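hiii, so i know i said id send this last week but things got crazy w the move. better late than never?? heres the sequnce for the chain we talked about at the cafe, plus the structure i predicted for it. fair warning i was half asleep when i ran it
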Amino acid sequence: MLEFPGSRLRDRYAIAGIGATEFSRDSGRTTRALGVEAVRAAMVDSGLGAGDIDGMLSYHGNDSTTSPVIAGDLGIRLNFYMDCSGGGSSIEALIGLAMGAIEVGMCRTVAIFRAMNGYTGTRIGGTGRQAPVFTGTSLDQGIHGMHSAAQSFAPSFMRHMYEYGTTSEQVAHVKVAHSKHASNNPRALYPKRVTVEDVVSSRWITKPLHLLDCCLETDNGVAIIVTSAEHARDLRQPPAYIAGVAGRVNKDQPGGYHWSRGPISRVAGHYAAPIVFGQAGLGPEDIDVTGSYDAFTFTPMLQLEAYGFCKEGEGGDYVSSGIIELGGARPNNTSGGHLCEGYTHGIGHIVENVRQLRHQADDYCPGWERGEHTYDYSEGGCRQAKDVEVTMNMGWASPPTGSALIMHK
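okay and structure toks below
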């Protein structure tokens, strides 16, 4: 396994706090209020006060509130902050930047948040209050009717079906698995269990995506706190140690027609895998739980394949085998993910894997806060995976851009 320079930071940093608001489709609140609540919840979770945090990072699509405002409302004075424009590959990259900022002495502890009214405010598909405007890189695709994520990602999905015989029914198992997990999550926006037939019989959005292949636009705020492992060990919660991180890794020509340089169905995780596994000194076989960006059912399938959890072309078989369900060999998105819990632009997947490492998945088990779980995965029961030691997150901005994070107890 290749050793990357970042491997010298292995296990030197950790996630020490997590927090989130309610997931809804009618928050009735500003992104400022959502961001403040989420960061404060992460502070309470970690046991940190305003004077203990001196760094802040966030990401947005011109739909959020800046770090100095959130920090000011919480009484935090910042030594370092950054608010970057970005999508689903941002959170893992920002965790890496937080580690770097602490490493060089710019700050000591960093809160990272995402706050958005993704349903009642700016909707990523370009509907709602945000009308389509084609400028800059969007000129490459938007003027040809490829404005939404579903439209622009579809060629990669279709090509996988063409090349390998992948079927809609196989990929629908991603939604089925995540719906089972969400049915045991009191916070899930869509806790109803669905079948493969439910998915493939739902109306078309853009081929090969049906309505139930798509994630849930959601109003929410989510936050995490990153600090040194040494500091984290003195705080309220068991640290989730960071073994490796890869941020915004690209294929060739990521800003335009990436499919002009094949394979079209190969996504950026193919290039991120040796970085994150090399840093961590681990391989896919060492991962107990995965958190893969599920903007659509197809995105986990392509990511799991790209990171080596199955061979190229076998993603359809992998996700339909039962392995990604709780009780399977490697559960994926145990909260229900973007497809069922609610769309958080990726940060919610980090929070969930921290919960899994703590053995504190907030399900319907009476003793979940004490780490007591029944491991009964029937509806209305448990969503804590057994014996979780190592987790992996796979971020996705688009087929040619991705990020990854490996954590352990």
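btw The two ends are 22 Å apart (CA to CA). thought thatd interest u
miss u guys!!
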